[in-house]
């Protein structure tokens, strides 16, 4: 069965692109455009991996990770964070919260796919 | 017979003298409005052109952008505090912190915050750079997802000013944004408002932005989904008034560097200057205007060049009073604040030492903001007396009335439409039209209320009705009408 | 006032004038001047209101129509880019130069005859180029040239409107296309700040030989906003040869440029700039000194430590704080005593706090414990504040 990936991104064009990119690789993709939707999707569909932006309405990406790890007690599901923010403190924060990878924009599509695949295997 | 003649003659003299005065006064206000409108229009156009291709992300990303402390005092906000803090934490900016000052709430505001954000008290070394009521504890979250949040628990100071000052003392970044917890702030606000600080050759000490009425907007958990003009009459009039004053007035004053009002609902300030100037004055009824005045005085007296800037984007939506009772309190307070501020800083009026503020802004405030309601009231009495005594020239009276009226409708219409042409916050033309049509009834229905409350505020000021206000001083810009009444107010 | 009447009489068609206005003319002229003035204002106000309404309706309709047209086109363009560029079957296996470009299908589907169509497509491509790197970006660039969209961008450079010029520069710089260096250099000294900034950014991204040449004759301010913008460009342009920025510390008279170079030196860890930075410790501007001190700290320049401590006494508070911060970064342990003295002695809170943080950074557990036990109450509070892991600043 195809693995399920949740992509959380508030810019529709970016979201659409990433969605199709992973669809083509044979994944089942579910999407959310903000933090609230994201939590609903996680609860309803239990995705195998989560790709998230940081700055979004309702809940920032950092908080989505925190809720996933602490509230839902989910330690396994890999989380990849995508952001254009340059601050080291953000990167530290994201990993402290339990993210598995951090990718800066601009994204190299092949690299993103490879990193997600690697996390799904291990 | 002779006496009778003299009196009627005198009355006639007086009548024409008064008519003449009112005519010139009105003409002066009008030409000022036209000048301000032109200034504003040019400034907005320039602003739009300069910012049309700004990629705000470049400051967002940079570790070298100045940090901003967002300060929001909270008093008995238990019902909405959680959503509002979550929404403040999602602002788009790299380096910022959110400081919530719990101003001795008597409800469960603090408990809710502690539970939701996993707060623990920390050994914060509180430095009282501005004197405030004692700070009891400072909290931080144990959850790294909320590492931007600081909660300050202090004794109630009966004013927003005191709570904001405590927030300033705790703030760790060079700039701070002063707001209210129930203001809905657009997510790119910090990016937009920080820009004037970075792109001027002269030190910018404060930046303001447009505030709008949120009463009918679609809001979900503190996130603004859709902008809709207020449906109820009173908030609708306020929306009209806000657009007009923000867009036509403040933009022009900013352009001339004469701006003295950066609303308490949303303002970004240079912390160092605020602290040097002494912070917010908790005895003031118009602490926002008062503080800008003091900051400007500080700069002028130390001969430091500076700017107070304003950006025309709407960045903040706030609940306006929806009932006449709350509205009357708000406006009476504003009027009282104005006269208080003018009185405290009377040395500024007409004083060339204080630059544009002394020569233009303050005289303007005295002549047109403070005096106008009184002149309107005497005008009304004058017309009544003339009408009753049968000495009125009805044609002339009507023409003069229509002259003031048509002008005010025109200027409001221009303001609203100009805002719509440049920024397009509302989706449909009909919403805009609907709002504009309000301009026709505004001078008849809404304006007299304002005149009445202004005079009431002045009356309270001069009769020294002081103690009765207490915590009401927090009934500023952005209070929800449902805000619980404070004990001190109830007992008065 | 009569002039106004005359003018109106000329504008308004005679039959209309004769029928509706002329009868009132004598009445109007009989009124006192201020009433006449009021009447004119009333007419003008009414005209302004009607004009604004008409303007609103027209511009709104036009806007909606344009919006509708562009949204549809944009969606089509996005779909094409996703399908034929992002998900191109060969993109993973072949090198970007070998990939067959889907320009035919773009022309066919989008038309691309009209200027607005080209512009919307450029905007969409720019968005993708900004957000995606690697082969995707390279294919986008080739496609942009193949579709001759660069012609439109080049044409904008020659526009007389400054915002058009910026738009053109922006597009060409994003797509890494050649712009004559003379053109750009000329614009880097433009009096228009926005244009100048964009030209400087474009110059850095596009110049083949000396991307930082304009630094040499930079006059006037380099405002914080411009610094942020250029910093972003410099740190994000791929394949840019980074010079040794200490050069401008030596030769430039421009204070802003010095401050900017210090930031770049830190970012690129240019340790060989340390001697040049140390020379700035004597600079007359305290802001420059403080920035130089911070730079030395961040580069962990152990050699600078002695000089920093020697300078300490005569400096203003901002520089003293910077020195303490720098000692906290360098952590050689040589000046622990100095830090401890400063922590216990200083009346200034900022100094005390920075000293505490520098002490903690050294990680001398014993010293901290003894301070916690023996220091006066207020110093202890400061130390505890800095030790609390939840307090960041």
Largest beta-sheet characterization of chain C: none
Q: What fraction strand of chain A? A: 15-25%
Total number of strands of chain A:
5
Tally of helical runs of chain A: 5
Judged by helices, strands and strand pairing, the structural class of chain A is: alpha/beta
Q: Which bin fits the share of residues in helices of chain A?
A: 40-55%
Helix proportion of chain C: over 70%
List the SSEs and their pairings:
The complex is a heterotrimer of chains A (122), B (492) and C (393).
Chain A: E1 4-8, H1 12-24, E2 28-32, H2 35-45, E3 49-52, H3 61-71, E4 79-83, H4 88-97, E5 101-104, H5 109-121
Parallel strand pairs in A: 1-2, 1-3, 3-4, 4-5
Helix pairs in contact in A: 2-3
Chain B: H1 2-51, H2 57-61, E1 68-74, H3 81-89, E2 96-103, H4 109-116, E3 119-122, E4 135-141, E5 149-154, H5 160-170, E6 175-179, E7 184-185, H6 189-198, E8 204-213, E9 218-220, E10 223-226, H7 233-255, E11 266-270, H8 271-277, H9 287-301, E12 307-318, H10 324-344, H11 355-370, H12 372-389, H13 394-423, H14 429-445, H15 447-462, H16 487-490
Parallel strand pairs in B: 1-2, 1-6, 2-5, 8-12
Antiparallel strand pairs in B: 3-4, 4-5, 6-11, 7-12, 8-11, 9-10
Helix pairs in contact in B: 1-7, 1-13, 7-13, 8-9, 10-11, 10-15, 12-15, 13-14
Chain C: H1 2-11, H2 14-30, H3 33-86, H4 103-110, H5 115-131, H6 135-146, H7 149-157, H8 162-174, H9 181-187, H10 193-206, H11 224-236, H12 246-251, H13 255-267, H14 274-279, H15 286-298, H16 305-311, H17 317-330, H18 336-345, H19 349-362, H20 365-374, H21 377-387
Helix pairs in contact in C: 3-4, 3-5, 5-6, 7-8, 8-10, 9-10, 10-11, 13-15, 15-17, 17-19, 18-19, 19-21
What does this structure look like?
The complex is a heterotrimer of chains A (122), B (492) and C (393). Chain A has 122 residues and is of the alpha/beta class. Chain A has a single domain (4-121), classed as Rossmann fold (3-Layer(aba) Sandwich). Chain A has helices at 12-24, 35-45, 61-71, 88-97, 109-121, and strands at 4-8, 28-32, 49-52, 79-83, 101-104. Chain B is globular and about 85 Å long. In chain B, helix 1 (2-51) packs parallel to helix 13, helix 8 packs across helix 9 (287-301) and helix 10 (324-344) crosses helix 15. Chain B has 492 residues and is α/β, with parallel strands linked by helices. Mean pLDDT of chain B is 87; it is low at 467-492. With 393 residues, chain C is mainly α. At the B-C interface, helix 1, helix 2, helix 6, helix 13 and helix 14 of B face helix 3, helix 8, helix 11 and helix 21 of C.
């Amino acid at each position: 069965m195809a693995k399920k990936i949740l992509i959380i991104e508030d810019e529709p064009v970016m979201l659409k692109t990433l969605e199709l990119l992973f669809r083509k690789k044979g994944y089942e993709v579910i999407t959310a455009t903000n933090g609230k939707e994201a939590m609903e999707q996680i609860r309803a569909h239990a995705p195998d991996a989560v790709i998230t932006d940081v700055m979004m309405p309702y809940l920032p990406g950092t908080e989505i990770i925190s809720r996933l790890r602490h509230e839902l007690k989910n330690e396994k599901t890999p989380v990849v964070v995508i952001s254009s923010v340059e601050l080291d403190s953000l990167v530290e924060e994201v990993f402290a919260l339990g993210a598995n990878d951090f990718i800066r924009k601009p994204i190299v599509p092949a690299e993103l796919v490879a990193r997600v695949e690697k996390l799904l295997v291990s | 017979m002779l006496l009778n003649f003299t009196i009627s003659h005198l009355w006639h003299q007086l009548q024409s003298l008064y008519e003449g005065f009112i005519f010139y006064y009105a003409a002066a206000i009008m030409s000022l409005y036209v000048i301000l409108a032109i200034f504003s229009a040019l400034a907005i156009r320039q602003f739009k052109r300069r910012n049309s291709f700004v990629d705000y992300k470049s400051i967002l990303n940079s570790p070298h952008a100045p940090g901003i402390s967002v300060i929001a005092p909270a008093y008995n906000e238990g019902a909405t505090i959680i959503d509002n803090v979550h929404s403040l934490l999602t602002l788009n900016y790299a380096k910022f912190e959110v400081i919530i000052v719990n101003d001795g709430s008597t409800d469960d505001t603090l408990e809710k915050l502690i539970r939701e954000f996993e707060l623990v008290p920390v050994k914060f070394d509180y430095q009282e750079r501005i004197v405030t009521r004692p700070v009891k504890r400072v909290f931080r979250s144990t959850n790294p997802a909320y590492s931007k949040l600081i909660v300050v628990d202090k004794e109630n100071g009966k004013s927003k000013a005191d709570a904001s000052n405590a927030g300033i003392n705790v703030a760790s970044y060079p700039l701070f944004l002063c707001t209210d917890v129930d203001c809905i702030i657009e997510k790119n606000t910090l990016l937009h408002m920080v820009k004037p600080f970075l792109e001027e050759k002269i030190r910018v000490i404060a930046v303001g932005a447009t505030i709008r009425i949120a009463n009918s907007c679609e809001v979900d958990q503190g996130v603004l989904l859709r902008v809709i003009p207020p449906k109820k009459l009173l908030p609708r009039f306020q929306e009209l008034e806000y657009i007009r004053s923000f867009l036509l007035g403040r933009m022009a004053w900013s352009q001339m560097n004469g701006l003295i009002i950066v609303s308490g609902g949303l303002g970004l300030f240079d912390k160092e200057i605020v602290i040097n100037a002494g912070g917010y004055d908790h005895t003031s009824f118009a602490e926002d205007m008062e503080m800008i005045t003091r900051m400007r005085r500080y700069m002028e007296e130390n001969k430091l060049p500076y700017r107070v800037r304003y950006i025309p984007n709407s960045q903040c939506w706030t609940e306006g009073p929806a009932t006449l009772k709350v509205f009357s309190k708000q406006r009476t307070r504003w009027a009282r604040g104005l006269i208080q501020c003018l009185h405290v800083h009377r040395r500024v009026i007409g004083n060339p030492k204080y630059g544009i503020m002394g020569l233009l802004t303050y005289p303007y405030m005295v002549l047109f903001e403070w005096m106008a309601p009184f002149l309107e009231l005497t005008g009304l009495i004058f017309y009544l007396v003339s009408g009753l005594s049968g000495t009125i020239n009805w044609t002339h009276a009507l023409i003069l009335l229509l002259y003031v009226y048509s002008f005010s409708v025109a200027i409001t219409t221009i303001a609203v439409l100009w805002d719509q042409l440049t920024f397009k916050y509302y989706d449909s033309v009909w919403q805009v039209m609907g709002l504009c049509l309000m301009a026709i009834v505004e001078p008849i229905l809404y304006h007299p209320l304002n005149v009445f409350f202004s005079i009431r505020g002045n009356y309270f000021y001069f009769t020294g009705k002081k103690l009765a206000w207490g915590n009401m001083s927090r009934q500023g810009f952005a209070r929800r009408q449902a805000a619980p009444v404070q004990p001190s107010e109830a007992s008065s | 006032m009569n002039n106004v009447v005359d003018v109106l009489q000329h504008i308004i068609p005679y039959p209309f004038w004769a029928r509706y206005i002329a009868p009132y003319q004598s009445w109007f002229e009989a009124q006192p001047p201020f009433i006449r003035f009021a009447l004119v204002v009333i007419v003008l106000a009414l005209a302004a209101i009607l004009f604004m309404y008409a303007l609103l309706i027209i511009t709104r309709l036009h806007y909606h129509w344009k919006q509708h047209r562009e949204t549809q086109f944009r969606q089509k363009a996005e779909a094409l880019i996703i399908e034929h560029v992002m998900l191109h079957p060969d993109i993973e296996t072949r090198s970007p130069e070998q990939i067959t470009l889907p320009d035919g299908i773009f022309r066919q589907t989008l038309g691309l005859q009209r200027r607005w169509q080209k512009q919307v497509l450029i905007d969409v491509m720019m968005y993708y180029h900004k957000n995606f790197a690697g082969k995707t970006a390279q294919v986008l660039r080739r496609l942009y040239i193949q579709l001759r969209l660069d012609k439109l961008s080049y044409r904008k450079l020659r526009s007389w409107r400054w915002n058009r010029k910026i738009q053109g520069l922006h597009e060409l710089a994003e797509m890494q296309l050649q712009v004559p260096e003379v053109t750009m250099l000329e614009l880097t000294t433009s009096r228009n700040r926005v244009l100048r900034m964009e030209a400087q950014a474009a110059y850095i991204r596009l110049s083949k030989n000396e991307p930082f040449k304009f630094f040499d004759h930079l006059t006037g301010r380099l405002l914080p906003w411009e610094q942020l913008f250029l910093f972003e460009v410099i740190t994000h342009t791929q394949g840019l040869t980074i010079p040794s920025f200490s050069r401008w510390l030596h030769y430039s008279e421009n204070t802003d440029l010095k401050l900017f170079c210090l930031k770049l030196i830190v970012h690129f860890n240019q340790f060989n700039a340390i001697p040049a930075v140390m020379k700035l410790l004597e600079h007359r501007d305290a802001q420059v000194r403080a920035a130089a001190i911070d730079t030395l700290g961040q580069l962990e320049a152990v050699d600078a430590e002695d000089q920093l401590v020697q300078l300490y006494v005569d400096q203003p508070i901002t520089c003293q704080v910077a020195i303490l911060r720098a000692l906290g970064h360098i952590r050689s342990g040589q000046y622990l005593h100095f830090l401890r003295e400063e922590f216990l002695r200083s009346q200034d809170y900022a100094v005390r706090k920075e000293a505490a943080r520098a002490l903690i950074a050294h990680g001398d557990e014993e010293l901290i414990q003894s301070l916690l036990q023996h220091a006066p109450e207020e110093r202890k509070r400061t130390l505890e504040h800095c030790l609390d892991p939840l307090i960041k600043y």
